[in-house]
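Before a colleague's protein record goes any further, I have to sign it off. My question to you is simply how this chain folds and whether the C-alpha coordinates agree. I do not need a full report, just your reasoning and any doubts. This is what I was given:
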Amino acid sequence: MKLTVHGCRGSIPISTPQSIIYGGNTSCYELIFNDYQLIFDTGTGFRQVSINGSKKTIIFYSHWHHDHIQGLAFNSGLYNTKKDIFVSSALNNKNESKNIIHQYFSGFYFPLELINKLPNLKFVEFNDLKKDIKKDFKIEFLRLNHPGGSVGYSIIVDEIKFTLLLDNEYDTSQFSSLQEFVNDSNLVVWDGMFTKEELIKKGIWGHSSIEQGIDFFNKCNIKNMLISHHDPLRVDDQLDHFSKKLPKGVQFARDGLKVDFT
Protein backbone atom coordinates (compact mmCIF):
# COMPACT_ATOMS: atom_id res chain seq x y z
CA MET A 1 0.00 0.00 0.00
CA LYS A 2 1.34 3.42 -0.97
CA LEU A 3 -0.07 6.81 0.00
CA THR A 4 0.62 10.05 -1.84
CA VAL A 5 -0.46 13.41 -0.44
CA HIS A 6 -1.44 15.59 -3.39
CA GLY A 7 -3.03 18.39 -1.35
CA CYS A 8 -3.07 19.16 2.37
CA ARG A 9 -4.10 22.82 2.56
CA GLY A 10 -7.44 23.86 4.03
CA SER A 11 -10.09 26.29 2.78
CA ILE A 12 -8.34 27.78 -0.27
CA PRO A 13 -5.30 26.95 -2.38
CA ILE A 14 -2.30 29.23 -1.89
CA SER A 15 0.89 29.96 -3.79
CA THR A 16 3.48 32.04 -1.97
CA PRO A 17 7.25 31.91 -1.45
CA GLN A 18 6.46 31.15 2.20
CA SER A 19 4.47 27.98 1.41
CA ILE A 20 6.80 26.06 -0.89
CA ILE A 21 7.83 23.31 1.53
CA TYR A 22 4.38 22.15 2.67
CA GLY A 23 2.51 23.20 -0.46
CA GLY A 24 -0.67 25.03 -1.25
CA ASN A 25 -3.01 22.52 -2.88
CA THR A 26 -6.28 21.66 -1.17
CA SER A 27 -7.25 18.19 0.00
CA CYS A 28 -6.46 15.14 -2.08
CA TYR A 29 -4.99 11.81 -0.96
CA GLU A 30 -4.19 8.83 -3.21
CA LEU A 31 -3.90 5.25 -2.00
CA ILE A 32 -2.49 2.58 -4.33
CA PHE A 33 -2.57 -1.15 -3.61
CA ASN A 34 -3.13 -4.39 -5.53
CA ASP A 35 -5.70 -3.69 -8.27
CA TYR A 36 -6.99 -0.43 -6.79
CA GLN A 37 -6.39 3.29 -6.93
CA LEU A 38 -8.37 5.07 -4.22
CA ILE A 39 -8.62 8.86 -4.16
CA PHE A 40 -9.95 10.70 -1.15
CA ASP A 41 -11.39 14.10 -2.10
CA THR A 42 -10.57 16.11 -5.19
CA GLY A 43 -9.27 19.46 -4.04
CA THR A 44 -6.80 21.29 -6.27
CA GLY A 45 -4.27 18.54 -5.55
CA PHE A 46 -6.34 16.19 -7.71
CA ARG A 47 -4.78 17.80 -10.78
CA GLN A 48 -1.53 16.04 -9.85
CA VAL A 49 -3.06 12.55 -9.72
CA SER A 50 -2.15 10.22 -12.58
CA ILE A 51 -5.29 8.20 -13.29
CA ASN A 52 -4.15 4.58 -13.43
CA GLY A 53 -5.46 2.77 -16.49
CA SER A 54 -4.69 -0.70 -15.15
CA LYS A 55 -6.37 -0.35 -11.75
CA LYS A 56 -9.93 0.25 -10.56
CA THR A 57 -10.13 3.95 -9.68
CA ILE A 58 -12.54 5.02 -6.94
CA ILE A 59 -13.03 8.53 -5.60
CA PHE A 60 -14.35 8.74 -2.03
CA TYR A 61 -15.64 12.10 -0.84
CA SER A 62 -15.54 13.08 2.82
CA HIS A 63 -17.91 16.01 2.21
CA TRP A 64 -18.76 18.70 -0.31
CA HIS A 65 -17.06 21.91 0.82
CA HIS A 66 -15.35 23.56 -2.12
CA ASP A 67 -11.77 22.90 -0.98
CA HIS A 68 -12.47 19.16 -1.20
CA ILE A 69 -14.10 19.10 -4.65
CA GLN A 70 -12.82 22.12 -6.63
CA GLY A 71 -10.08 20.24 -8.50
CA LEU A 72 -12.26 17.50 -9.99
CA ALA A 73 -12.57 19.03 -13.45
CA PHE A 74 -8.86 19.83 -13.80
CA ASN A 75 -7.41 16.33 -14.09
CA SER A 76 -6.81 15.46 -17.74
CA GLY A 77 -7.17 11.74 -17.03
CA LEU A 78 -10.81 12.30 -16.20
CA TYR A 79 -11.57 13.04 -19.85
CA ASN A 80 -10.56 9.59 -21.09
CA THR A 81 -14.15 8.40 -21.37
CA LYS A 82 -13.01 4.80 -21.94
CA LYS A 83 -11.72 4.70 -18.37
CA ASP A 84 -14.49 4.27 -15.77
CA ILE A 85 -14.01 6.20 -12.55
CA PHE A 86 -16.27 5.33 -9.65
CA VAL A 87 -17.48 8.02 -7.27
CA SER A 88 -18.95 7.42 -3.83
CA SER A 89 -19.51 9.03 -0.46
CA ALA A 90 -20.74 7.63 2.83
CA LEU A 91 -22.20 11.05 3.57
CA ASN A 92 -24.88 10.99 0.84
CA ASN A 93 -26.57 8.57 -1.49
CA LYS A 94 -25.39 8.37 -5.09
CA ASN A 95 -28.10 10.63 -6.53
CA GLU A 96 -27.47 13.37 -3.97
CA SER A 97 -23.73 13.15 -4.59
CA LYS A 98 -24.20 13.35 -8.35
CA ASN A 99 -26.53 16.32 -8.07
CA ILE A 100 -24.09 18.20 -5.83
CA ILE A 101 -21.21 17.68 -8.28
CA HIS A 102 -23.44 18.55 -11.22
CA GLN A 103 -24.56 21.81 -9.61
CA TYR A 104 -21.00 22.81 -8.70
CA PHE A 105 -19.58 22.12 -12.16
CA SER A 106 -22.26 23.71 -14.31
CA GLY A 107 -24.42 26.78 -14.78
CA PHE A 108 -23.33 29.88 -12.92
CA TYR A 109 -20.38 28.17 -11.24
CA PHE A 110 -18.52 26.44 -14.09
CA PRO A 111 -18.39 26.78 -17.89
CA LEU A 112 -18.91 23.07 -18.67
CA GLU A 113 -21.72 20.68 -17.82
CA LEU A 114 -19.14 18.29 -16.42
CA ILE A 115 -21.43 15.40 -15.50
CA ASN A 116 -23.06 15.38 -18.93
CA LYS A 117 -19.65 15.47 -20.60
CA LEU A 118 -18.22 12.53 -18.66
CA PRO A 119 -20.34 9.36 -18.84
CA ASN A 120 -17.37 7.45 -17.42
CA LEU A 121 -18.01 8.99 -13.98
CA LYS A 122 -20.03 6.26 -12.28
CA PHE A 123 -21.75 7.31 -9.05
CA VAL A 124 -22.33 4.36 -6.74
CA GLU A 125 -23.90 3.79 -3.34
CA PHE A 126 -21.31 3.46 -0.61
CA ASN A 127 -22.87 0.31 0.87
CA ASP A 128 -23.12 -1.35 -2.55
CA LEU A 129 -19.50 -0.54 -3.27
CA LYS A 130 -18.48 -1.83 0.14
CA LYS A 131 -20.08 -5.19 -0.65
CA ASP A 132 -18.45 -5.37 -4.07
CA ILE A 133 -14.92 -4.85 -2.76
CA LYS A 134 -15.14 -6.75 0.53
CA LYS A 135 -13.08 -9.66 -0.81
CA ASP A 136 -10.25 -7.26 -1.69
CA PHE A 137 -10.20 -4.74 1.15
CA LYS A 138 -12.28 -3.46 4.03
CA ILE A 139 -13.60 0.09 4.22
CA GLU A 140 -15.53 1.70 7.09
CA PHE A 141 -16.73 5.22 7.79
CA LEU A 142 -17.45 7.40 10.80
CA ARG A 143 -19.50 10.58 10.92
CA LEU A 144 -17.47 13.59 12.05
CA ASN A 145 -18.25 16.96 13.61
CA HIS A 146 -18.28 19.51 10.78
CA PRO A 147 -20.76 22.10 9.46
CA GLY A 148 -22.75 20.45 6.69
CA GLY A 149 -21.47 17.03 7.74
CA SER A 150 -18.32 15.06 7.00
CA VAL A 151 -17.17 11.46 7.25
CA GLY A 152 -13.87 9.82 8.04
CA TYR A 153 -12.74 6.62 6.33
CA SER A 154 -10.63 3.65 7.34
CA ILE A 155 -9.10 1.19 4.89
CA ILE A 156 -7.69 -2.23 5.82
CA VAL A 157 -5.63 -4.17 3.28
CA ASP A 158 -3.47 -7.17 4.17
CA GLU A 159 -3.45 -6.16 7.86
CA ILE A 160 -2.38 -2.60 7.02
CA LYS A 161 -4.79 0.11 8.18
CA PHE A 162 -5.05 3.69 6.94
CA THR A 163 -7.47 6.18 8.52
CA LEU A 164 -8.50 9.62 7.27
CA LEU A 165 -10.19 12.05 9.71
CA LEU A 166 -10.97 15.19 7.70
CA ASP A 167 -12.76 17.55 8.43
CA ASN A 168 -13.55 17.30 12.13
CA GLU A 169 -13.94 19.64 15.09
CA TYR A 170 -12.67 17.39 17.83
CA ASP A 171 -14.56 17.18 21.08
CA THR A 172 -13.67 14.91 24.00
CA SER A 173 -17.11 13.33 23.70
CA GLN A 174 -15.86 11.83 20.43
CA PHE A 175 -12.85 10.17 22.00
CA SER A 176 -14.23 6.66 22.52
CA SER A 177 -15.72 6.35 19.04
CA LEU A 178 -12.64 7.85 17.38
CA GLN A 179 -10.30 5.70 19.43
CA GLU A 180 -12.14 2.56 18.37
CA PHE A 181 -12.25 3.73 14.74
CA VAL A 182 -8.49 4.35 14.47
CA ASN A 183 -7.36 1.41 16.62
CA ASP A 184 -4.35 -0.42 15.12
CA SER A 185 -3.94 2.15 12.34
CA ASN A 186 -0.55 2.28 10.65
CA LEU A 187 -1.30 5.89 9.73
CA VAL A 188 -3.96 8.42 10.74
CA VAL A 189 -4.48 11.71 8.89
CA TRP A 190 -5.63 14.31 11.43
CA ASP A 191 -7.27 17.69 10.90
CA GLY A 192 -4.87 20.13 12.56
CA MET A 193 -5.91 23.35 10.90
CA PHE A 194 -5.58 25.46 14.04
CA THR A 195 -3.42 25.82 17.10
CA LYS A 196 -4.83 25.60 20.61
CA GLU A 197 -4.89 29.39 20.87
CA GLU A 198 -6.56 29.89 17.47
CA LEU A 199 -9.24 27.37 18.30
CA ILE A 200 -10.58 29.64 21.06
CA LYS A 201 -11.89 32.08 18.45
CA LYS A 202 -12.59 29.53 15.70
CA GLY A 203 -14.32 26.79 17.66
CA ILE A 204 -17.33 26.69 15.35
CA TRP A 205 -15.42 26.40 12.07
CA GLY A 206 -15.39 22.60 12.11
CA HIS A 207 -11.68 21.88 12.59
CA SER A 208 -9.30 20.59 15.23
CA SER A 209 -5.91 21.68 16.50
CA ILE A 210 -2.34 20.50 16.24
CA GLU A 211 -2.19 20.01 20.01
CA GLN A 212 -5.37 17.91 20.01
CA GLY A 213 -3.81 15.69 17.37
CA ILE A 214 -0.71 15.12 19.49
CA ASP A 215 -2.80 14.35 22.58
CA PHE A 216 -5.01 11.95 20.61
CA PHE A 217 -1.95 10.20 19.15
CA ASN A 218 -0.44 9.70 22.60
CA LYS A 219 -3.64 8.13 23.94
CA CYS A 220 -4.39 5.77 21.05
CA ASN A 221 -2.97 2.60 19.58
CA ILE A 222 -1.74 4.04 16.30
CA LYS A 223 1.72 3.94 14.77
CA ASN A 224 1.93 7.20 12.85
CA MET A 225 0.00 10.42 12.32
CA LEU A 226 -0.02 13.05 9.59
CA ILE A 227 -1.37 16.41 10.76
CA SER A 228 -2.98 18.04 7.77
CA HIS A 229 -5.52 20.56 6.42
CA HIS A 230 -3.15 23.43 7.17
CA ASP A 231 -4.59 26.90 7.59
CA PRO A 232 -3.94 28.93 4.40
CA LEU A 233 -2.26 31.54 6.62
CA ARG A 234 0.17 28.96 8.04
CA VAL A 235 3.60 29.49 6.48
CA ASP A 236 6.51 27.06 6.21
CA ASP A 237 8.50 28.65 9.02
CA GLN A 238 5.60 28.20 11.44
CA LEU A 239 5.13 24.55 10.54
CA ASP A 240 8.87 23.97 10.80
CA HIS A 241 8.78 25.54 14.27
CA PHE A 242 5.86 23.34 15.37
CA SER A 243 7.61 20.29 13.90
CA LYS A 244 10.28 20.50 16.58
CA LYS A 245 7.59 19.84 19.20
CA LEU A 246 6.00 16.84 17.48
CA PRO A 247 6.54 13.43 19.11
CA LYS A 248 8.11 10.57 17.21
CA GLY A 249 5.61 9.13 14.77
CA VAL A 250 3.85 12.46 14.12
CA GLN A 251 4.65 14.79 11.23
CA PHE A 252 3.00 17.48 9.14
CA ALA A 253 1.57 16.52 5.78
CA ARG A 254 3.03 18.21 2.72
CA ASP A 255 2.22 18.14 -0.96
CA GLY A 256 4.05 15.31 -2.67
CA LEU A 257 4.73 13.31 0.50
CA LYS A 258 4.77 9.56 -0.16
CA VAL A 259 4.31 6.86 2.45
CA ASP A 260 5.09 3.24 1.59
CA PHE A 261 3.48 0.79 4.01
CA THR A 262 5.31 -2.28 2.69
In short: The two ends are 6 Å apart (CA to CA). The mean pLDDT is 97. The first helix runs from residue 94 to 104. The first strand starts at residue 2 and ends at 7.
